[in-house]
Automatic annotation (TrEMBL):
Annotated keywords: Membrane, Transmembrane, Transmembrane helix
Naturally occurring in which organism (per UniProt): Cellvibrio fibrivorans
Domain of life according to the entry: Bacteria
Protein name: Uncharacterized protein
Transmembrane segments: 12-32
């Protein structure tokens, strides 16, 4: 009896072992070949290759790329050099991040201490910032008479009419000096507000308009998510500074100082995330391809990676994930609020070990795709769409400045659940976006 039982258990063990062996062989077999590029990957590549060319003289990106060089250097020339350098700097063996060969120039070290302090104070554009600009007006004017090369550089930057990013999108390459440019934008408005005359309108309108047009061009044409968010932040800053500039002007001349670019609604193309998310896919490509097992010392690890990771299939999954955001959320603004609410209700259940046992093809790629799910990008989409609400809110406040129409209602929020909050006692209008943090609202004054 015992012998028969042991015989049955032995056969059962052999069956389980055989099934396990068949499963392992099956996993190895199905992981022998990678997938071909998907239709979405091909579409992304074609969109990248078919970007509209821009004359180098008009391309603000080249000037932007060299913006941080020394006072006596030509930003555009250095930008062109850096583009060429990036084509040669990244080799298949390159693993770590690298830096531009030209020395970085910290313009703040060349500013008077009080100007730096004021610039730091005005990182938040508030009444406190504006009041301190007035208090430091003499210091700003004195500095402006002596050395304003960095402001001249910014004016030359925002005079560019086009934007095309020519540097390869690769996680190992350095980024342009986004933070430095944002600081100089702030400094340019501080200086202009301090030295403007009460009856001045033409020069102020020119600065505000050039600035807004430039950043709207970046918003529309950038190929990176960080570029998109920097443009969003710069445009919101422009709106806040515009509000305070207009407050200083008389009613009779204020209309002439309103930036022409402010009157134009944001287009679907400007608010679209498609172009920058395609750029995100190319960034993913630079992360995926180095995963070839060369950095793993032990044989078992290399073997597991060889049969559990497929590069192209991983890129295909990444492309589908990013494209799903475009397909579901790149809708006209009139439909966005309702669409976003439905999108947030979608569930993305966490995959268990059982899932990977039942779907053993490219397990590593599946896990990598879970690291950055589509929902991770929702807030970026919202911040971009909210720009139209902030634009309309600023136009409403301009209407409120008119003594003949204190109850203007022409400009309303694009969101039904987020109406503008008019505070007559404080003489302000607060605009609410659909985001979940402090960046989702702005307050304007009249």
């Amino acid at each position: 009896m015992l012998g028969k039982l042991l015989n049955i258990l032995g056969k059962l063990f052999l069956c389980v072992l055989a099934l396990l062996l068949v499963y392992v062989l099956g996993v190895l077999l199905i992981n022998l070949r990678d997938k071909p590029p998907s239709a979405t990957v091909i579409e992304f590549q074609q969109s990248w290759d078919n970007r509209k060319p821009v004359d180098s003289a008009d391309n603000g990106y080249l000037y932007f790329l060299g913006f941080d060089v020394a006072k006596d250097a030509d930003p555009k020339f250095v930008g062109e050099e850096r583009v060429q350098w990036t084509k040669e700097a990244i080799l298949p063996a390159t693993e770590e991040s690298i830096r531009f060969p030209q020395a970085y120039n910290d313009f703040q070290k060349q500013l008077p201490k009080e100007i730096v302090q004021l610039m730091d104070l005005c990182s938040q554009i508030t009444a406190t910032c504006i009041n301190n600009i007035e208090k430091q007006r003499y210091s700003i004017i004195q500095w402006s008479k002596n050395d304003t090369w960095i402001l001249d550089r910014y004016r030359q930057l925002i005079a560019h009419k086009a934007w095309l990013e020519l540097m390869k999108t690769d996680i190992r390459l350095p980024l342009p000096s986004y933070g430095e440019v944002m600081k100089v934008q702030r400094l340019a408005f501080i200086s202009a507000l301090a030295i403007m005359h009460p009856d001045e309108s033409k020069n102020i309108a020119g600065l505000l308009d050039d600035d807004l047009r430039f950043w709207r061009s970046v918003l529309k044409n950038t190929d990176t998510l960080i570029g998109k968010m920097i443009a969003v932040a710069a445009i919101k800053n422009n709106f806040l500074w515009t509000n305070f500039f207009l407050l200083k002007l008389d009613n009779s001349i204020r209309p002439a100082a309103i930036p022409a670019a402010l009157i134009i609604p944001f287009t679907d193309e400007e608010l679209s995330m498609r172009r920058c998310l395609i750029g995100e896919w190319f960034l993913s490509e630079s992360l995926v391809y180095p995963l070839d097992g060369s950095g793993i010392d032990n044989f078992t690890g290399r073997l597991l990676l060889a049969f559990a990771y497929q590069k192209q299939d991983t890129l295909n999954k990444r492309a589908e994930s990013l494209n799903s955001i475009v397909l579901e959320l790149d809708v006209p603004l009139t439909n966005f609020e309702a669409t976003l609410e439905l999108y947030k209700q979608k569930a993305y259940p966490e995959k268990t070990a059982t899932h990977y046992f039942r779907h053993p093809y490219n397990v590593v790629g599946q896990i990598l795709s879970e690291v950055a799910p589509p929902t991770m990008y929702t807030e970026y989409v919202v911040r971009t769409k909210d720009l139209e609400a902030f634009r309309r809110g600023l136009l409403l406040i301009i209407e409120q400045m008119k003594p003949t129409s204190p109850e203007a209602v022409r400009h309303v929020s694009p969101y039904k659940t987020k109406p503008f909050a008019l505070n007559q006692e404080q003489q302000s209008v607060t605009v609410f976006g659909l985001g979940n943090d402090a960046r989702a609202q702005q307050t304007y004054y009249y």
